[in-house]
Amino acid sequence: MENEKEIKKIIEQSGNTFHCKVINFLKNKGWHTLVSPYYMDLGTNKAREIDLVAENHWVRKGDYSLGKHGSVIFKLFIECKYIPQPTVFWFSNRDLTSAKKWVVANTGLPENNTYTDQHHYLSPNLNVAKLFASKSKQGMEGEAIYKALNQSLNAMAYLRGRESLDPKFPKQDKPILSTVEMPVIVCNSFDDFYRVEMDKPDEVRPIDGNFQLEVNYAYIDNQNNRKSEYFLIDVIDFNKLDDFMKVLEGDKNIMFTIL
User: Fold this and answer.
1) Can the peptide bond before residue 170 be classed as cis, meaning omega within 30 degrees of 0?
2) Rounded to an integer, what distance in angstroms lies between the CA atom of residue 91 and that of residue 119?
3) Three-class SS of residue 193?
4) What is the spatial distance between Cα 259 and Cα 253, in angstroms, rounded to a whole number?
5) Of 29, 98, 82, whose CA–CA distance to 241 is shortest?
6) Residues 80, 22: contact at Cβ < 8 Å?
7) What is the SS3 assignment for 259?
8) pTM value?
9) Which of 146, 164, 161, 168 is nearest to 217 (CA)?
10) Which of 59, 73, 86, 135 could form a disulfide with 192 if both were Cys (CB 3.0 to 4.6 A apart)?
11) CA terminus-to-terminus distance, the chain
């Protein structure tokens, strides 16, 4: 092809190769996916998109009298990011009160329950990232992580509550026990991620496992209402995406135990 070099350059710079790797991973795990859906951002009156919405559901059959028969649906609003340069995250104690309120309000799990406390947002001794910075010369809006969190949260604010991505589901004989919608950032690698504890700012360590980013997010919803919400965003190393799938499986098992 005459333009072979130019075509290869477009492919290399687009980021779509990594995007496709995430899509294919989830499809192979049985997730239904919606690729790059567009929506109108009422706050800016601009069309925007998110890389991926992924949905999986689990069905448990049981005695109706025990409240066990039904399904749990997880829907993830995913932004895929190729990280081009070192990025530092500042970690501190999670806002446990807000995290518990989110879990109770968005999963159907009850308050003051030992099973609820096993949800991965409430893991004991969990510090979360609250600040981040890189060598970007474009300011905050040029930060890869800032773009990712804003795109995942903004899309979730507009697109959550929509119909299932699976055209064969739900069926009337499978009542929905809960639908949990969560923002997620999947990175190609954590090789250039570092952490600093806010109470020990001189100690820098590599980040070697999936973590969460805590955000208080103000936005205008799809009904043109001004809102502010607390979120925890799972930040996932693609190489540890299987680990995250196991975490979600654990959350699902907790929900089936008590819903």
Assistant:
1) yes
2) 20
3) strand
4) 10
5) 29
6) yes
7) coil
8) 0.91
9) 146
10) 86
11) 58
* Residues paired with 179 in a beta bridge: 73
For the record, the structure tokens of 41 come out as: 């951002």
Bridge partners, 18 (sequence order): none
**100 HSE (CA, 13 A, CB side):** 13
Is the distance from CB of 234 to CB of 212 less than 8 angstroms?
yes
Q: Which residues of the chain have pLDDT under 50?
A: none
Q: Rounded to 5 degrees, what angle do the CA atoms 183, 188, 194 make?
A: 85
What the block records as the tokens of 225 is 């209402």
Token readout for 10 is 């477009």
Amino acid code (one letter) for 42: L
Rounded CA gap, 31 and 27, in Å? 5
Q: What is the pLDDT of residue 170?
A: 56
Query: What are phi and psi for residue 165, nearest 5 degrees?
Result: -80, -15
What pLDDT was estimated at residue 2? 64
Q: Which two tokens stand for residue 140?
A: 């905050």
Please, are residues 81 and 255 in contact by the beta-carbon 8 Å criterion? no
Range list of β-strands (E), the chain: 32-35, 38-41, 46-49, 52-60, 70-81, 87-93, 127-134, 176-187, 193-197, 200-206, 211-220, 226-237
User: Which residue matches tokens 């899309």?
Assistant: 155
Q: What is the pLDDT of residue 84?
A: 82
